[in-house]
Write a structure and sequence with these properties.
- This protein has about 600 residues and is an alpha/beta fold.
- It folds into four domains: about 5-215, P-loop containing nucleotide triphosphate hydrolases (Rossmann fold, 3-Layer(aba) Sandwich); about 215-260, no CATH class; about 270-510, 3-Layer(aba) Sandwich (Rossmann fold); about 515-589.
- It is built from 20 helices and 20 strands.
- Strands 5-6-7-3-8-9 form a six-stranded mixed beta sheet, sandwiched between helices.
- Strand 8 (about 195-200) and strand 9 form a beta hairpin.
- The model is unreliable at about 240-265 (pLDDT under 50).
Length: about 600
């Protein structure tokens, strides 16, 4: 039977007058896989911090088993900026220990391409956001932990990195995982339970994200049916009162439908034929025709010879390795860059709009609705359908109160939503989205997908969010960093298979890296220094335990506990001294 790791009982936590957690009781057991969803600012990260013991509660109790080893990955990756990456991840572990451990080698290979990667010798402060995120994940996965708490672990990871992390966590039966992420594909792959944080409550659903969506829909259907039943009874009661005579009614029976019954009558998310007709009316037959084009940045050639035809109504997802040219290609289509050779023909009616990864400067003195209405008051969706600026704001989760907020008071996610809203108000017929899902919660992502279902134009998307890509795109292309753009008829699965094969070939053909005698000597001296520091730390712990032993001379139970700790520490000290002696003999010959 799985042991309990963390329990929270009747927890209340508020910031200002707004309760984020209100009388919440729940627990995590060994090996559990829990995904947390909810709106931005709804309390997801607060719940994770309460579980970790980082955030104190206003009321209630949090208890953790005393044997539990817990690790947490926050949204902000921190370490000494001057620290070497290898030391940040491995710490004081001996080189021969981690280099010979197949599990650690697998983690290095999956996240960095191998433990001999050039990144290992760089300082932490020189890393990009994605590289820092991988370092933080590697450190957690290598440590002998019982539970890890992950706050947006897929941020800055590419599709390949997300796929590897999901597969690795599925194999780790020894590890409990609680994860906050807007990546619904990752939630589906990893989670066995979903916690939804909503209005201060935490509602639990069995299964991953797909099961959560079905169960949530079923709950709403039951609630709507119950409301309809109550309204019907009220009407009957009113009729009885007006007639002035008693009336008897039979209580209707309600049968819960199976999930497939629930969605059987639901139409496809978009009518491809109808949207294509609208797109052709707005764009004509030509959008982009590219022939023998070369894409370069400085001295680097990203794509050697590109032949690509993008037509009206195409919905294309672009995936690829970091640095392969995805964003540069998108900005070239938007007219910000030019191909260094070849030809690109753009349709005469094309009106392209690019949502980049960088937030545009907005007037901080404006309200949200004013910032949107400055672009346009109405926007055409296609087929004669129009919605107002306020309605579009609502579609992207800016309710009336949100529309009245000042731009200067918006969070990063809200600013990105505002940027996207303003972009759509321009009525573009070609929409270029570069990582549009960054900082969006699941509810906003669902609203955006629903909006894009009705978009009658050409759509190109770069995203690490696999669920979003597969939901809104019909075709996929890939950049593997080899100077070519590949069609991917089987989608992202095909891309991942090609990357695995590419990495295997690279490893097979790579020259063997040999460590010189001088480098080996340097590493051994470095390890001796680490062992000496560790010995000092353990000796200090031993002295403290001996002092406690003297003070607890008449407390039998405490003496047993101290004796157990003392035995462990003395064993550890002996092992460290043996390691120090072994390395000293090697250095001194």
């Amino acid at each position: 039977m799985a042991r309990n790791i963390i329990n929270i009982e009747a927890v209340f936590k508020a910031f200002g007058i707004r309760p984020l957690l209100d009388d919440v009781s729940l627990g995590v057991s060994e090996g559990e896989r829990i995904g947390i969803v909810g709106r931005n600012g709804g309390g997801k990260s607060t719940l994770l911090k309460v579980l970790a013991g980082i955030e104190p509660t206003d009321e209630g109790r949090v208890s953790r088993a005393n044997w539990v080893k817990l690790g947490m990955l926050s949204q902000f990756d921190t370490a000494d900026s001057d620290a070497i990456v290898r030391d940040v991840i491995i710490g004081d572990a001996k080189t021969h220990e981690w280099a010979s451990d197949s599990k650690i080698r697998e983690i290095f290979s999956g996240l960095f391409g191998g433990y001999d990667s050039d990144l290992m010798d760089r300082s932490f402060g020189s890393l990009s956001g994605g590289e820092k995120r991988r370092v933080g994940i590697a450190k957690l996965l290598i440590e002998p932990l019982d539970i890890i708490l992950l706050d947006e672990p897929t941020n800055h990871l590419d599709v390949e990195g997300v796929d590897w992390l999901a597969k690795h966590l599925r194999k780790r039966d020894d590890l409990a995982v609680v994860v906050i992420t807007h990546d619904r594909w990752f939630l589906d792959e990893v989670s066995e339970t979903i916690w939804e944080v909503i209005d201060g409550r935490v509602e639990a659903y069995d299964g991953g994200y797909s099961a959560y969506v079905l169960a949530k829909a079923e709950r709403i259907r039951q609630q709507n049916t119950e409301n309809a039943r109550r309204n019907n009874l009220i009407r009957k009661e009113l009729a009885w009162l007006r007639r002035g005579a008693p009336a008897r009614t039979t209580k209707p029976k309600f049968r819960v439908e199976a999930a497939n019954q629930l969605i059987s009558a639901e139409p496809a998310p978009r009518n491809a034929t109808e949207l294509l007709n609208f797109a052709e009316n707005r764009l004509g037959k030509t959008v982009y025709e590219i022939h023998h084009a070369r894409l370069e940045i400085g001295e680097t050639t990203l794509i050697e010879s590109l032949n690509w035809n993008i037509g009206p109504g195409d919905r294309i997802g672009i995936v690829g390795v970091n640095g392969s040219g995805k964003t540069t290609l998108m900005r070239t289509l938007a007219g910000e860059y030019r191909f260094s050779a070849g030809k690109m023909q753009t349709g005469i009616t094309v009106k392209a709009a690019l949502l980049s990864q960088h937030l545009q400067e907005l007037d901080p003195s404006l309200r949200v609705i004013q910032a949107v209405e400055r672009v346009a008051l109405q926007v055409e969706l296609g087929g004669g359908r129009e919605i107002s600026a306020s309605q579009l704001c609502e579609r992207l989760s800016f309710d009336y109160e949100g529309q009245q907020k000042m731009v200067r008071d918006l969070s990063g996610g809200e600013r990105r939503r505002l940027q996207l809203t303003r972009l759509l108000m321009e009525s573009p017929n070609v929409l270029l989205l570069d990582e549009p899902t960054n900082d969006f919660d699941v509810e906003t992502l669902t609203a955006l997908e629903d909006l894009l279902d009705n978009y009658a134009g050409t759509l190109l998307v770069i995203s690490h969010d696999r669920y979003f890509l597969e939901r809104v795109c019909d075709r996929f292309v890939g950049l593997l960093g080899d100077g070519s753009l590949r069609d991917l008829p089987r989608g992202i699965d095909q891309y991942l298979e090609m990357r695995v094969q590419q990495i295997k070939t690279k490893i097979k053909n790579a020259p063997k890296k040999e460590i010189s005698d001088a480098e080996q000597m340097r590493l051994m001296k470095k390890n001796i220094g680490k062992i000496e520091r560790k010995i000092e730390k353990v000796q200090k712990e031993e002295r403290e335990l001996l002092q406690r032993q003297e003070l607890a001379a008449f407390d039998h139970q405490k003496l047993i506990e101290i004796e157990s700790d003392l035995k462990r520490v003395q064993t550890q000290l002996k092992e460290l001294e043996n390691e120090w002696l072994e390395l000293s003999l090697q250095i001194n010959g």
